[in-house]
Amino acid sequence: MDYKDLADIIFPDAKPIEYYEEKYPERNLKEGAIVTRFAPSPTGFVHIGGLYQSLIAKKLAEQTEGVFFLRVEDTDQKREVENGVSGIVNALKDFEIQPDEGMISENEEKGKYGPYKQSLRKEIYQSYAKYLIEQGKAYPCFCTVEDGEEMRAKQETAKIRPGYYGVWAKCRNIPVIEAIEKIKAGEDYVIRFKSPGREDRKIKHHDVIKGNVDFPENDQDIVIIKADGLPTYHFAHVVDDHLMRTTHVIRGDEWLSSVPLHLQLFHELGFKAPKYAHIAPIMKNDNGNKRKLSKRKDAEAAVSYYDEEGIPAEAVKEYLLNIANSNFENWRRANKEKSIDEFELQLNKMSVSGALFDMIKLLDVGKTVISTFSAEKVYDESLKWANKYDKELAEMLEDKEYALKIFGIERGNKKPRKDISKWSEVKENIGYMYDDKFLNKKQDYPYQVINDKSDINKILDLYIEKYYNENDDKQTWFDKIKELAGEMGYAKEVKEYKANPDNYKAHVGDVSTVLRVALTSRTNTPDMYEIMQVLGKESIEKRFEKAKKAE
RNA sequence: GGCCCCGUGGUCAAGCGGUUAAGACAUCGCCCUUUCACGGCGGAGACAUGGGUUCGAUUCCCGUCGGGGUCACCA
Which of A124, A149, A134 is nearest to A230 (CA)? Predict the structure, then answer.
């Protein structure tokens, strides 16, 4: 009885690993092409950090003409969630970070290196586990979960390093014959890796992001195949990324400390290890402490949040790129028109430690991104958002022609207007432009300098009766307001007023403010000439009438 | 607690032995302007700390302090 017999009893039907090695050959890509992936668990929640990782992975693959694939890590059946895969696929689609290979819907995939869902790869893992057992590099362990807890408790009270290693690895030296008997007797077991490592030896690892990191060797006999026959993350990672011919493993830095284990696994399996790039997480300030963005505590941790808020995917991506490579901002300013696809991301420029998430900065990016959109695109995007989250806005947008006029105000100038940072602001932003809403609701009229009601009413009347002409160009239009100001005893020029404040009641700017407030009930608006053009004379008259009647 | 990583303005961050220590967001002031936004100009604001090494340390080494990660039949 030897290891071979043991292996055969445990995995009688497993194919030899040569079968898989042939089935998934080296990829034929150009020199330097990066093959990388996003490998989430389908927990029903897509974290912004996951999106961040995929963005980086996707860009790298694209830049090097490599491959970016999506692999679903569903080996923990307890955490399985209905439609978890679709959630991930759709999120990537929303952000245009589509994989070249891998899952493309809940149950469909594309690419030659699949299946891309780990639960479907059970027999592959078993083949490799069998291979290790045959070589005496893995063994069945009959310790129960309770045994494990007990061991851990002892180690804790003795204040020694916890884990299944050295003298604590009770099943490591069970003779083959005995192990076979136990299995035949129907005892439950898991498969553990027989680690050749020694804790007192160091290994050197060069991480593409973190740089040189030294670790003690791994000496833990970790579980590679669980009692349910599925692999643990560590084993699945090594087998999959070998078979899928991954060149770069880009993942969260919570994995950094398992690098010694992974490297050892690659080595014992006879595989070439990929390069690792461990990304620092996106953090949040919590009462002076930094912590990862939390699924439970922070709404902004969920990718869905940005959709709900109406923050454009482009803005989120640009912000994320900003965190990834801080030179992105300079590039963006120098290349305002270019697509972010043209920006060359560099892994070695990524920060080693986690950045605090900055919503204000994100919104600023959003503002800039939206300012570059055409009125048409602003319309389409806000309508799309409104249909999903704001019925009232959707109704307002029904008159597309009118909405387009509003969104067109000061848009497309060399210095475009930047007043929308997310779609959820649109309603507030354009609401006053709708007569049915504006006229039928009580409005406040926060007139500023000019406060005398009779003067105000006179300005409004005079303006309509004597000065306003829809066909005036902007210069003429403003000249007329100056005329009006003059007629009413206000300075025609602000400078003139400032020079001789005693000669006038106020100045043309204050008169403009009266018109603006009467028109919109706001002191701050985009260009009033354009607003009047959009509103039209009839609406202007009605609004003035309403203002005159207001208290 | 063991192991690993990190510590430049409020935030994101350049710089990596000699710099007036970039830039962006935020903030303040001014200018532009009929308002706001945009834009322009300017201000305030930082090398955690103590020892070394060095002619010279933000940059190199050690300690301290602070922060983060990790120690599962979860990923």
Answer: A124
Domain residue ranges in chain A: 3-15+122-279, 375-433, 453-549
For residue A225, give the nearest of A135, A118, A151 by alpha carbon.
A118
Length A300 CA → B10 C1' (Å): 20
A99 and A67 Cβ atoms separated by less than 8 Å = no
pLDDT at A294: 87
Largest CA distance in chain A: 113
* A453-549 maps to CATH 1.10.10.350: yes
Tokens representing A309 are 């808020």
Q: Which nucleotides of B are covered by protein (CB under 7 A)?
A: 1-7, 10-14, 22-26, 34-39, 67-75
**What's residue A450's pLDDT?**
82
What's the pLDDT score for residue A175? 94
Residue A551 has pLDDT above 80, yes or no: no
Residue A210 corresponds to which tokens in the numbers above?
Answer: 């973190």
Instruction: Give me the interface pTM, i.e. the ipTM.
Output: 0.93
Q: What is the mean pLDDT of chain A?
A: 92
Q: Measure A348 CA to B64 C1' (Å).
A: 30
Q: Which of A221, A276, A225, A214 is nearest to A246 (CA)?
A: A276
- Nucleotide with minimal C1' distance from the CA of A214 is B4
Find which nucleotide's C1' atom is closest to A513's CA.
Answer: B35
Q: Tell me yes or no: is domain A3-15+122-279 CATH 2.120.10.30.
A: no
Distance A532 CA to B52 C1' (A): 73
- Residue A288 clears pLDDT 80, i.e. is over it: no
* CA nearest to nucleotide B39 C1': residue: A415
Nucleotide closest to A255 measured between CA and C1': B70
A485 to each of A441, A461, A493, A510, A523, how far by Cα in Å? 29, 13, 9, 9, 18
pLDDT in tens, A179-216: 999 999 999 999 999 999 998 898 989 999 999 898 99
Angle between helices A537-549 and A508-520 (to 10 degrees): 90
Nearest nucleotide, CA A210 to C1': B5
Q: For A301 and B13, how far is CA from C1' in angstroms?
A: 22
Residue lying closest to nucleotide B33, CA to C1': A509
The answer to whether residue A423 scores a pLDDT higher than 80 is yes
